[in-house]
């Protein structure tokens, strides 16, 4: 008979915006004061999931008369779930420090100022929910909407308005109310579904304002980072100390959980091979690492919205993308149909430094890959897991210089690198 139509696209837009800045969502919202400010990201995720499901449910909920049942139980259900929806939005606003006080003060939908003149749409909606659904046995919290001499109201049910009571023809529903008022012990409160739906829709549509604010919220954080100069490599006596510093900065400014990429480069910079061929190739790879970090340094300082060669070191950067860089590509194995048969040994040997339990397989896997690496490096007996992984990564690096035109274009064609 009646249902609401909420714009579910707002839920998708909200999720996309938060995920666009997911790292900051995870790390920068733990300072919220509510509930000690802990586990902010979990609360954000719970809110987004609840908004998705509750919006879909409310749109599907039909308020209709039910034979032999006087009370409109669908309305109770609607009020409870709509309140949950709006509470989620208010909590999200609190997390992102967005002030809803102006919206909370509006009185243009229900137009119920109450006997104190301080009533608002928000307060009246909460009064209806408390009276009809949450505290029907005794509601005394919202005294501004109660009659004089009334301290307690009880509502046995809300019913559809058939115009038989008090001549009320405008309201869709009537809340039957018993009171402790000595002058009259019962009354009927008319409820217009158009007003209830209008209020819920309006508050739900505030998500659009909140989405815009979230963009500004995160841009402010990013601007603060941009204005803090990073230490230059020259300020460190040891290059590996600089890499440790960059690892910390990356976790702060971009994303945590990628320490192993930095750790691998730190191991590679500390590595020395006794085999002259391997050592020569290692030194050229180490120079490529330093090159990659010059671009990563610029990236972490500028925090650009779109990737450019200046911040990635990649000449053939796809338009309007972000994320790839020479920093990542120096660790990636080459791809191609002619290398598919080597997928398993690549996976195990490149990750050997993090999964040394596979060392008993190392000799056989190295031999299986020999047609790939023999042109570039020399594996020796009894190598440590980290040596195996670094040496194979070096072989991948030089293989790509031979076979990948884009990659070849990104590494200078000089003796220092080739």
Mean pLDDT: 88
Structural class: mainly alpha
SSE series? HHHHHHEEEHHHHHHHHHHH
Query: Can you tell me the residue ranges where pLDDT is under 50 for at least 5 consecutive residues?
Result: none
User: What is the makeup of the main sheet?
Assistant: 3 strands, antiparallel
> Hey, roughly how much beta strand do the residues contain?
5-15%
Total beta strands = 3
Total helical elements: 17
Strand order of the largest sheet: 1-2-3
Helix content: 40-55%
Gyration radius from CA atoms, angstroms:
32 Å
Q: How far apart are the first and last residues' alpha carbons, in Å?
A: 75 Å
What gross morphology would you assign? elongated
Comma- or semicolon-separated keywords:
418 residues, mainly alpha, 3-stranded antiparallel beta sheet, 17 helices, 3 strands
What does this structure look like?
The chain has 17 helices and three strands. With 418 residues, the chain is mainly α. A hairpin with a 6-residue loop joins strand 2 and strand 3 (186-191). The longest helix has 34 residues, at 193-226. It is elongated. The N and C termini lie far apart (75 Å). The model has no long low-confidence stretch (mean pLDDT 88).
Q: What is the gist of this entry?
A:
By secondary structure, this protein is mostly helical. 53% of the residues lie in helices and 5% in strands.
What is the element layout, followed by pairings?
Elements: H1 9-20, H2 22-27, H3 40-60, H4 73-95, H5 101-104, H6 121-134, E1 153-160, E2 173-179, E3 186-191, H7 193-226, H8 239-253, H9 259-270, H10 276-302, H11 309-312, H12 326-329, H13 343-350, H14 362-368, H15 370-373, H16 385-403, H17 405-410
Antiparallel strand pairs: 1-2, 2-3
